[in-house]
Recover the amino acids of this structure.
């Protein structure tokens, strides 16, 4: 049975934004006895909320609200707050989000919150998998695609693993994570937060309500994140530092593909990550180290915390090998929606026939320059094609393909013609919204195109 939110019984609560998380919180509010008024620009979404017992909101309803629950996709500050958010603030109505409300319902279950610019979903799924492999009951939700109020709570001893975006965290005032994991930080979502400082501040809310006995796990391989660990230390916290390439003192590291635990003072190897296909690349090694450290922070011993690493299958659209034709692997990394994310997959392969492009974020593509030596040829799609070619075209041959289908066919033909072990890699370094509904849609289309080519080759061979 899904959770009911009884804090607002017999009170009126607004819900702004009726996608998956908005509908889930509306359902929980109604189950808890609240009077729910709902707003959304999509009449179909509003109709779904009405079927749950909510009713369409009007501006005059704002003054009567006990709270306005804002979905993560709705801007609350930059470039300007949604008009309803601004009006609610002016009326003195508390603004909150589903994750913050869920924290009260979830108690006393420990929450492992995971944030960062890149790797959140993989680390969250892996931490959940490791808990289950260790025999610990656990649930997984949040930004990974399952709204928190769709989780079916069981025993009070189960652990709840939540992937947390900056959009969710900026609305959190009460969320207290037993273990708060900060993976990394590079500029992203500045169009929503307005500045790097505001983006960092939103992410830092993951630590804000932790008790002295709670733990923070911090990846320290970028300057901003290393500074966050130092700041926590100055506040009297004991962050567990995670790194790839070295083993931090009293932390967890990966050295030459081996996971090393130094939490007890003496470094010891606990797992060999080199042959784990679902955890290929330095970024996935960081994800593995962070997930492992989170379990250690919950009190699991090294053997139990590492037991599930080899059985983890990975997630779709994240360095997902979707096919192989001869000596050519076809890899779907559609989740690489910014240049920093794309460097992770480019850095994991040699002899790459690269498909990139889409809707560019701020900051350009300079981060990709050191990895272009791995690119035999690039095939550019979408709005950012010209910008990528202008910035990186002197480092590798890049051609305008226009669409994903054209790019795949050209990349596959060239890779097969090379006669070498090669990778056709979709790592767009851009958001998807110019040609696709989401990065998942883009990855699904890529996967289906690959399968169609595989079927065509199989039919031709019979």
């Amino acid at each position: 049975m899904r959770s009911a939110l009884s804090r607002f019984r017999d009170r009126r609560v607004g819900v702004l934004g009726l996608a998956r998380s908005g509908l889930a919180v509306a359902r929980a509010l109604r189950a808890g006895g609240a009077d729910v008024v709902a707003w959304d620009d999509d009449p179909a979404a509003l109709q779904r909320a009405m079927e749950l017992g909510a009713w369409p909101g009007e501006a005059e309803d704002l003054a009567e609200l006990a709270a306005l629950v804002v979905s993560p996709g709705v801007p609350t500050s930059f470039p300007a707050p949604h008009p309803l958010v601004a009006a609610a603030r002016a009326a003195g109505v508390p603004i909150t989000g589903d994750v913050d409300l869920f924290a009260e319902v979830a108690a006393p279950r420990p929450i492992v919150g995971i944030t960062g610019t890149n790797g959140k979903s993989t680390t969250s799924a892996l931490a959940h998998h490791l808990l289950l492999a260790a025999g610990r009951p656990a649930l997984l939700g949040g930004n990974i695609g399952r709204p928190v109020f769709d989780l079916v709570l069981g025993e009070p001893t189960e652990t709840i693993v939540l992937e947390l975006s900056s959009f969710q965290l900026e609305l959190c005032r009460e969320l207290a994570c037993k273990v708060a994991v900060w993976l990394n930080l590079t500029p992203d979502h500045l169009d929503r937060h307005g500045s790097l400082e505001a983006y960092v501040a939103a992410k830092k809310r993951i630590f804000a309500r932790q008790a002295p006995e709670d733990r923070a796990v911090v990846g320290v391989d970028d300057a901003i994140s290393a500074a966050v660990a130092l700041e926590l230390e100055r506040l009297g916290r004991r962050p567990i530092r995670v790194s790839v390439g070295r083993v931090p003192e009293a932390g967890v590291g990966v050295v030459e593909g081996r996971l090393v635990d130094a939490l007890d003072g003496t470094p010891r190897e606990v797992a060999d990550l080199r042959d784990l296909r679902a955890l290929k690349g330095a970024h996935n090694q960081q994800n593995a180290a962070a997930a492992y450290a989170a379990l250690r922070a919950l009190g699991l011993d090294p053997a139990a915390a590492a037991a599930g690493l080899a059985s983890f299958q990975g997630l779709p659209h994240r360095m997902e090998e979707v096919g192989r034709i001869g000596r050519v692997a076809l890899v779907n990394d559609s989740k690489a929606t910014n240049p920093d994310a794309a460097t992770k997959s480019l850095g994991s392969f040699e002899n790459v026939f690269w498909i990139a492009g889409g809707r560019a974020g701020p900051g350009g593509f300079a981060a990709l320059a050191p990895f272009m030596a791995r690119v035999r040829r690039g095939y550019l799609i979408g709005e950012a094609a010209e910008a990528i070619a202008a910035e990186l075209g002197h480092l590798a041959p890049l051609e305008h393909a226009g669409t994903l289908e054209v790019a795949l066919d050209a990349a596959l033909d060239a890779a097969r013609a090379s006669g070498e072990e090669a990778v056709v890699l979709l790592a767009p370094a851009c958001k998807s919204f110019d040609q696709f509904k989401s990065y998942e849609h883009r990855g699904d289309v890529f996967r289906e195109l690959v399968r169609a080519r595989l079927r065509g080759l199989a039919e031709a061979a019979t």
